[in-house]
Amino acid sequence: MYQTLLTSLENGIFIVTINRPDKMNAINKNLMSDLDEALNEIKSNSDIKAAIITGAGQKAFVAGADINEFVGLSKEQGTALAKTGQDIFFRIENSVKPIIAAVNGFALGGGCELAMACHFRVASENAKFGQPEVNLGLIPGYGGTQRLVQLVGKGRALELLMTGNMIDAGTALSYGLVNHVTPQDELLPKAKMILEQIIVKAPLAISKCIAAANAAYEGNGYEIELKSFGECFSTNDMREGTSSFLEKRKPQFKGN
Question: Looking at 93, 133, 240, 247, which residue is catalytic?
Answer without folding.
Answer: 133
